[in-house]
Predict the structure.
Amino acid sequence: MTKRHRIQFPPDKGHELSQAEAYFYIVEEGRPIKLRFHDYDKVFARPGLYEQLFYERLKCVSPQKVTELLQRSLTSERATSSELRVLDLGAGNGMMAECLRRIGVSRIVGADIIPEARDAAYRDRPLVYDDYLVADFTDLSDEQKQDLADWSFDCLTTVAALGFGDIPPAAFFQALQLVGSGGWVALNIKETFLESSDDSGFSRFVRELILSDFLEIHQLERYTHRVSMEGVPLKYYALIGRIVAPVPENFLGNFGIA
């Protein structure tokens, strides 16, 4: 039986913090330990903490939502989920892969930058990944690139990982190039990243990709990703697209984030 953790939210400062800065306390042996939401190495090292924090307390639904929309798009195109070969970028401990397995996906490779994520996936969901690569996608070796290319991916998923520094644009772009023409892209992103008022390089990159001739959008749905510590809904977009032409090597350079 998975251990239950004692989680405490800061009583008065939570509303002042961005998602990237948000923190909580976990009480262990009577002592409160402060962890940021994005301290994934420490969170994943504690079995069940990630699920208890994000999925029970904060009501995250993104893996199910993105999977649901991907399945809907596949059905509309008379495509079969069991034939997909998925690269799950920012895989964490396998929540997204577990949802993909439920719709019949048979080949999934996980990728994350920290070994604690891979270790947690193998500990908590040992059967969901065919392989799991711990690597920095902004600095892949030739051997890693070849190993990934050998899988012939036709779907890229990345959930709850874009836009906060967890997956830099260059890392996402490298993963995107591993998916051939006709392949699927399934992701979610905070709603503000699609607003014209956000002039960051990452935001402009995503908006231009959506509007480009390289990606055909099949689903774009605004939904509640999870709630904040104060119970305020955090709105995201779930996006399902299909690559219709290779994204050129110089695409990132247009936004000053190469």
Notes: Residues 6-57 form one domain.
